[in-house]
Specification:
The chain is α+β, with helices and mostly antiparallel strands and about 350 residues long. The protein has 3 domains: about 130 residues, Elongation Factor Tu (Ef-tu), domain 3, CATH 2.40.30.170; about 50 residues, OB fold (Dihydrolipoamide Acetyltransferase, E2P) (Beta Barrel), CATH 2.40.50.100; about 130 residues, Helix Hairpins. It contains 5 helices and 14 strands. The strands form 3 sheets. A 6-stranded antiparallel β-barrel has the order 1-10-13-12-11-14.
């Protein structure tokens, strides 16, 4: 009877109700049964974009900076101009060297034609000498026959044989001239590949000099908005010096969900996004990609759990969320902004 009175007393009932409410609040806060929710949320999420760092490919002095911090630019707009005088002179040198090599190749053509003409002339002289030798051989045979018949004096025979020997000598000399002319032609032919290679090398040097001049004009690679412009007039910059950056308008969200939240998250599910910088303005999007590894796997210093005491920590998995089209607030998103993302995993695709 005493216990029943205590249970039904006015002081006990409010205490019991308060206890039940407290337990319910804890269960709800930790999303434990019966308050388990299909909505997975995280505030470890950020707006991302492709920020392109602008740096020169050449070293030189800055002679013009026609842009200012946070200026909108279009692809091809000049951001920084370097002094190009040295590179202009290098182009002039390269063009002069190219002209010299082209002249050498043109002289080769003339020299080759001259040597070919010498070969043709030597062959013609050889043919004439061979014809003269054939005539001398015929004359000698006829004279020998007449001498045997007693119809020709010995002196005539001697003259004919002397002419035959002279004709043979002329043939030998003409044949040697042909060999020499052909050797000279071969020597000229052997030099052509080297001359052609020299011309190609000079042409490449000219093109490289033109590229260097073009690279003194540092231009915007894409449409976008500049960051801070670090280049200053008169400043000497080396290759790779960061001058500014360009951020294109395309943005997306990377939400780092705990691995324990990924069970129901799949590509294509809709996502709700609240942006801190826009007064928690709401945007919608959809999951486009899920990282193939935990974020810790992409860090420079990966955790080593093989030594020491181990404490299990839920890893974060990056999830890419593309923004839906037709949202005015999307144009105000900037890379690096913090957002809150929620995904209803009960949504079926």
């Amino acid at each position: 009877m005493r216990i029943k009175e205590l249970v039904l007393s006015k002081a006990t009932i409010p205490a019991v109700l308060a206890g039940l409410i407290g337990i319910g609040a804890v269960l709800y806060a930790w999303q434990l049964p019966p308050f388990t929710s299909s909505v997975q949320s995280t505030n470890n999420a950020y707006v991302k974009g492709r920020v392109t760092l602008i740096a020169p490919q050449l070293a030189g002095y800055v002679v013009a900076v026609p842009v200012t911090d946070y200026q909108s630019v279009h692809k091809g707009d000049v951001l920084v101009q370097l002094d190009d005088r040295i590179y202009v002179q290098q182009l002039a040198q390269a063009e002069a060297a190219l002209l010299q090599q082209q002249n050498a190749l043109a002289n080769y053509d003339q020299n080759y034609a001259s040597k070919q003409a010498s070969v043709d002339l030597a062959k013609a002289q050889l043919a004439a000498a061979q014809a003269a030798l054939s005539k001398a051989q015929a004359d000698a045979a006829r004279t020998d026959s007449l001498l045997a018949s007693g119809l020709s004096p010995q002196s005539t025979v001697d003259q004919v044989h002397s002419a035959l020997a002279q004709a043979q000598s002329s043939v030998d000399q003409a044949s040697a001239s042909v060999s020499i002319a052909e050797q000279n032609l071969s020597l000229v032919e052997g030099g052509k590949p080297a001359l052609e290679g020299a011309v190609k090398g000079a042409e490449a040097a000219v093109e490289l000099a033109r590229i260097n001049i073009s690279n003194t004009r540092i231009v915007a690679p894409v449409d976008g908005v500049l960051g801070e412009v670090a280049a200053r007039l008169g400043q000497y910059v080396s290759i790779g010096t960061q001058l500014t950056s360009v951020t294109p308008p395309q943005t997306w969200v990377i939400a780092n969900f705990k691995e324990t939240q990924l069970a129901g998250i799949v590509v294509g599910q809709p996502a709700n996004i609240k942006v801190d910088a826009l007064g928690y303005g709401a945007l919608t999007g959809h999951i486009s990609e899920i990282s193939p590894a935990a974020g810790s796997e992409f860090s420079v210093l990966k955790p080593d759990n093989a030594t020491g005491n181990f404490t299990k920590i839920a890893q974060r998995i990056p999830v890419r969320i593309e923004l839906d089209e037709g949202q005015d607030l999307a144009a105000r998103l900037l890379p690096g902004m913090s957002v809150e993302v929620s995904v209803d995993t009960a949504t079926t695709l």
